[in-house]
Design a protein that fits this description.
This protein has 259 residues and is mainly β. The chain contains two helices and 15 strands.
């Protein structure tokens, strides 16, 4: 992550008044259509075709997340963690009691799927920022830092283990030296570590080459690479639709953009 930025790169989670996480009311409650008590879990995701069936009670318990969401008549329940992160909690039949989430003793964020979810949060304007979204603003950029660079060769004095590379600042007009990647896990989701130790969008031929929240574009530009899936609702994604794109593990966060 850049070390020399204007006032805000990531919009910080806006802490809820009660500094606890887990067994709280869903920040984005859905209508309780299966008889579960609202607020028992942070989120209750019910597949559109989930209906009670004679063997549902016996067939849902113990299923993992993917199997639960794929099985008609089962409901996947989720617990909210710190901030706006969510994790799969359990699988149950419609109408079964929802197990309580553990108390984590940390602040929760004001979570969102779109700007409309943030409209009632003072002060205004509050906007919905997607997980990991970089936001530029605030005071003018400072002078270039001591480790400013124009090419990877300018970073050689930092050493070769790990190799250092020259990366542009996402908010300012200069570039600076950072430790380069050595494996794909060093890069953000949807990116791959290249032979030059820079992270770049993962090349693809089909969507099977991409992570679950990404796809290979149906159009055929000269160079295909994975792009985040677009969506209108959660039903179009493995987990959540935030600001029109798919994300797993976390909703967006309401925040005030830097001036």
């Amino acid at each position: 992550m850049p070390r020399h930025e204007r006032s805000s790169i990531l919009i910080a989670a806006i802490a809820a008044i009660a500094a606890v996480a887990g067994c709280t009311t869903d920040p984005l409650p859905a209508p309780a259509s299966d008889g579960a008590a609202a607020g028992d879990l942070a989120t209750v995701v019910t597949p559109p075709d989930a209906v009670a069936s004679p063997d549902a009670a016996n067939g849902c318990a113990g299923l993992d997340e993917a199997a639960c969401k794929a099985r008609a008549g089962c409901v996947a329940d989720y617990c909210q963690g710190c901030g706006c992160s969510y994790s799969f909690a359990a699988c149950r039949a419609p109408g079964e009691k929802v197990a309580p989430c553990p108390g984590l003793g940390c602040a929760q964020g004001i979570c969102c799927r779109s700007n409309a979810d943030c409209a009632t949060q003072p002060p205004q304007p509050f906007l919905c920022f997607a997980p990991g979204q970089q936001v530029c603003g605030g005071p003018a950029c400072p002078p270039p830092p001591p480790d400013a660079c124009k090419a990877d060769g300018d970073c050689a004095s930092h050493g070769i283990s790990p190799p250092w590379v020259c990366e542009p600042s996402p908010c300012c007009s200069w570039s600076y030296c950072i430790a380069g990647c050595t494996k794909d896990a060093d890069c953000a989701e949807g990116n791959t570590c290249g032979a030059d130790h820079h992270c770049a969008p993962t090349p693809c031929n089909t969507s099977a080459d991409c992570p679950p929240d990404f796809e290979c574009p149906p159009t055929k530009p000269s160079t295909l690479h994975c792009v985040r899936r677009t969506c209108m609702t959660d039903a179009h994604c493995p987990h959540f639709c935030v600001d029109g794109a798919c994300y797993s593990g976390s909703l967006g966060t309401c925040g005030v953009p830097p001036a």
